[in-house]
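Narrative of activities, Objective 1.

The group set out to show that a structural description can be obtained from nothing but a protein's sequence at a throughput compatible with the screening campaign. Below is one input-output pair from the validation batch, recorded exactly as produced.
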Amino acid sequence: MIDQRKLPHEEVYVKLYTYEEVAQAIETMVIRGAPAIGVAAAMGVALGVQKSKTIDSQEFLTLYGRLYQTRPTAINLKWALERMKKCFEKALDHDQPLSHIKQKLEAEALDIYTEDIETNQKMGANGKQFIKNNSKIMTYCNTGTLATAGYGTALGVIRAAHEEGKKFLVYVCETRPFLQGLRLTSWELYKENIPQKVISDNMAGSLMAKKEVDAIFVGADRVAKNGDVANKIGTYSLAVLAKYHGVPFYVVAPTSTIDLQCPTGKEIPIEERNPKEVTHFGGKPVGLEDVPVYNPSFDVTPHELITAIITEKGVFDPIYGRR
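Output recorded for this entry:
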């Protein structure tokens, strides 16, 4: 996988040989993005079983647990791991030889990979109608090929509109503190020759006030049963600004991101990350190191602020249901 920490200036690929290496890659942000994490975790399970000589239920649960704890907010991780677990249990129940179990888990991981790309393309097809010709749109964090198995969620909608021949400008929020917008989304748009302008996060409201933004597209790491959405920290602020200025606010997420066991956004666990992501830049301190830092990686946007949720199965109004 490409090491996302080194983009956009270095395109470095890493090879991972064990499930522990996959877990560390997820934890250290070598790979990030909810769908991509799910795919990586599934492949981590397949790797773990491939390396085993006598896999049993307890050993499987150990590697499952290690991967599960890497990122607590993104539900795609759990969704993919549960698919792998069911595949393993089914093969075990049928008393299949170890070689067959390994083949089945590898095939399941590859299915998750290919299905994610197909899902993203369907979301792009469902969402491109909301991008008008000659419009100006805004996106946040990174929701493209890097955040998925391929094509992208919110950036997939943008890509689909571009492939259709529509002309538009994308405002790319830098996305503090890890700069996924500046480093990753801008890089992807540049590769696709899609017109863009990078802005710092605190410029978004000013642009909306000047009526420079026609629509906003974001991804999601978890969607609660009531339509509340957890996404990269700062998404909530954008949604509030969009509501005030009358700008449509679209969430693009596969149905695997919907957690029906989570009633509302209040129950979504929010991951807190290393304070150095805030106090350091390029490995060098830019703030006082002995000052306390609060660094949640996600926030929750209430469903009342969301215009629509675009999935591979259709477009849904989080208040009134299917459009």
